[in-house]
Write a structure and sequence with these properties.
Mean pLDDT: 84
Distance between the termini: 36 Å
Structural class: mainly alpha
Number of helices: 1
Order of helices and strands: H
Low-confidence stretches: none
Amino acid sequence: MKIRNPFKDYLGRWKDDVTTKEKLVWSIIIVVSSMTFFNIFIFN
């Protein structure tokens, strides 16, 4: 899988040619990073 940003614009809308696997991988990355951010900066 080629690593690229599958988002179309600054609002986070998906490009038309993004596969389901790319959507899943990027969604997991976003969720994990946001959970880490909130745990480190908000709840400390």
